[in-house]
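@channel anyone free to eyeball this complex?
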Amino acid sequence: MAESSVELRDVSKRHGDTRAVDRVSLVIRRGEFFAILGPSGSGKTTLLRMLAGFESPDAGDILIDGRSVRGVPPNQRPVNLVFQTYALFPHLTVAGNIAFGLEMRRLPRADIAARVEEALDMVRLQGKQDRLPAQLSGGEQQRVAVARALVNRPAVLLLDEPLGALDQQLRTDMQVELKTIQERVGLTFICVTHHQEEALTMSDRVAVMRQGRLLQVGSPRDIYEAPQSAFVANFIGRSNSLTGRIEMVSGLRCTVRAADLPAADPVVAACPAGAGIGSPATLMLRPERLHLSADVQVDGYDNMLPARVSKAIYNGSETQYLLALSDRLSWQVLIPNAGNGQKRFQPGESVFLRWRADEAVVLSE
Amino acid sequence: MNPDAVPPDRPESFRAAPVPRRSSLLLLPALAWLGLFFFVPLALMLAISFASRGTYGGVVWTLSLANYANVLDPLYVKVFLRSVLLASVTTVLCLALGFPIAYYIARLPARRQGIWLLLVMIPFWTNFLIRTYAWIFMLRTEGLMNQVLAGLGLIGSPVDVLYTEMAIVIGLVYGYLPFMILPLSAAVERLPPSLVEAAWDLYASRWAVLWRVIVPLTKPGLVAGCTLVFIPSLGAFMTPDLMGGARTMMIGNLIQHEFLVARDWPFGSAIALVLMVSVLLGLAIYLRAERAGTRLAAGG
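replying in thread with the prediction:
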């Protein structure tokens, strides 16, 4: 059996004048929870619809379980889709919806009943099998949609913005539940989303798309800790950036002089491979990796920059500070809220920003 | 006091506000019209149907069921059955022709939908009588259809379509097709395309998508379209009169004949009322079965 569950080879698709999907190649492993993340218009939904068979690529090939699915209609593909709007049949009961795919494949009645029962168990909807979709809450409808697809035991389960229609609390619960279900059934899940938190928490690997192209593929940790482009760094989580030129290289470290900072404040960072003196560099820094202090401290941090607090926003679990580093440069910092002894900074206060050299991701363009 | 409560000067006015008494005055003109021009004549017809025909065609006020007994004459029952058959064939053909058109129109972008719906309705701008004569011109022995078929070498001698039941059906389908297309396209438009895709994704063949998803979910439109075609077809008299010739009489012709030619108003009224009551009964039985079916599906 092939190790890859889904393989895309140079897949392209045009919609009128725009390249909805532009030469995407990708291998998705068997049993993996894979997220395709991108803003709207990035081509991720087109990609999913091509996997489901509703659209066909203009160029390239798609392989599912090692076999090309070119020209294979959706009703003959070993994939099932959980629609963004759930698309439950309003005239069928919960059980009728879940049984639909099995009935279409003409399974024996007893088998259908047993598998519907099992699917209801899995999504915790026992006792609701005779309800109509309109009599269910949003979260319950979502679980029916998942059960209706999973009951067919597809080679790949496709999810189109599965949690988009749910409110925040339910969304968080369903993230965990979907991940649990996926681990239990061991099927390949491919989830399309524009919600970065969803992608990071549920998936084994994430692909970031923009304007039809694949920007980066990796584990959530890779994507967050080592973004390969400014777009990925800003789209996944929040990020502070600093652009400048490399002034000095010493071993694995380099000194960067930023255009927007006073000349007296060079910054030390890990040196990107192949970068030489004078080459441009962009530093990306996560707001939660920065530290603040009221006075100068030299305690193992490689960098220290003076700044002024322009805003302090209390978020419950953390406080978000907006800082002005110079006239042209403002950053944000997230400090977890601790007990009463914690120093809290007020707008207008002068502070010092500190971080270790290896906390910054350096992109050299 | 609970701060969330509705202020006392606005008592529950947001939901299910009762219709102010004065608004019901708006119904008055329509009610007066209906009463005067629908219920009064209907009551008159009911009364006449129990009377009998005078020697010179007048109405003699006797109370008898003779007219209703007369309706059961095999001759008239045959006309009635033929009408039901022709109206049914017309409805089925309208459905078969209208559904694909309606589906196509409903899935077009809104702007182009308007153009297509306009095209469907354009025939209404011309007098129905003139359009029927156009059909006669096309279907008659030396008409357009036979000339084209002969010209193509498909037939040796002209086929006689005009003045047959087939001509009646052609005329009725032509006349009532828009009444099928309009409610159907509205129903299809309300069907989210994702449901069709979902069925297709769940291994349904094209036929299964149609029967298991599209038909059940566009049923209100199907029922409306079939009713709008069947009922007027059943009572049609102009099309069968002009295109069916003297041999094939439909119930509409019979009623017309009794009123205008035989001048037997009481018998004509009885036939008309039997027709109306049987259509209403048919609809009532259907609706009852439908409601029971829905209750069953909902799990009681």
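from a first look: The interface with chain B takes residues 52-54, 73-76, 79-81, 83, 85, 87-93, 100-101, 104-105, 130-132, 148-149, 152 of chain A (CB under 8 Å).
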